[in-house]
């Protein structure tokens, strides 16, 4: 049996017609890192609140480490939460914040000190153990909040947008730290985020939610390369996946995929390949198309081009030198093995 088993959880709030969560089922192995992604209102917080016990599901069952917990009080569930808001006690030092829970649970002083020393070293907080939260940076506060969760050694870590209050650099740093501690502790973690980038870079598996319904469960690679529907294809990946009607595909490609003729074609920006028209040595096997470069965004190493093609604009990611391409007509091809087809 799986370590965490969520079976057919639904939640209907009073006075609402639609369910915030519909028949949500998921089995999580011990030590797995799961990211839950979805746009605002997709049911992420509802799921977390049901897991922590702050909300009761309308139906369904949850089992954690062989114990049914569906109706247990939050304090009896042995889960630690890390929020977007750090929720630290402002009048307590870093050390006091981290050890407070252990004190309440009457953990021996020696053990408290050992855990404090270990976790502050692991998370780079040794210099600030005696500092009050107001004198810490955002990244440090989030690390304290993480440290407090870690020393509890809970059965389950729940993280609710823990990086979203941090600037880009700190998001990377704290994200790395979360991953490193996760690997070290093999802590089973559910991480809620609206950011598909965070989910892709941190998780073993991703759950994509929309309107309370699971759209796909898969590894980051699976949800990126094999999205199960148009919503997942568009939600995962930046720049957004290119979409256009089948009738726009070059004839030769249409003939290759006759069974998809009623569908929408999708292709990620890195699977379109451009060549300057003057280029003579290019040996393309797929049919050549012509587009006009209308915009170039350089990201250092790679660029994203906007290509006007028929009456669509396609995004193309390239590592080529694009400095002379603005306004130019270019040849491009589709990597046919990467074409995706979705119902309209
Ligand atoms: P997310 O966290 O993905 O933004 P939520 O779980 O907060 O989504 O919300 C899912 C749906 O449930 C939304 O339609 C929201 O309006 C509704 N909802 C959330 N909490 C409540 C509540 N306490 N009462 C009524 N409706 C709620």
Automatic annotation (TrEMBL):
One of its GO terms (molecular function) is ATP binding. PROSITE patterns: ABC_TRANSPORTER_1, ABC_TRANSPORTER_2. Residues 4-236 form the ABC transporter domain. SUPFAM superfamilies: MOP-like, P-loop containing nucleoside triphosphate hydrolases. InterPro entries: AAA+_ATPase, ABC_transporter-like_ATP-bd, ABC_transporter-like_CS, ABC_transpr_MalK/UgpC-like, Mo/tungstate-bd_C_term_dom, P-loop_NTPase. Keywords: ATP-binding, Cell membrane, Membrane, Nucleotide-binding, Translocase, Transport. It holds the Pfam family ABC_tran. This is ABC transporter ATP-binding protein. It comes from Candidatus Enterococcus myersii.
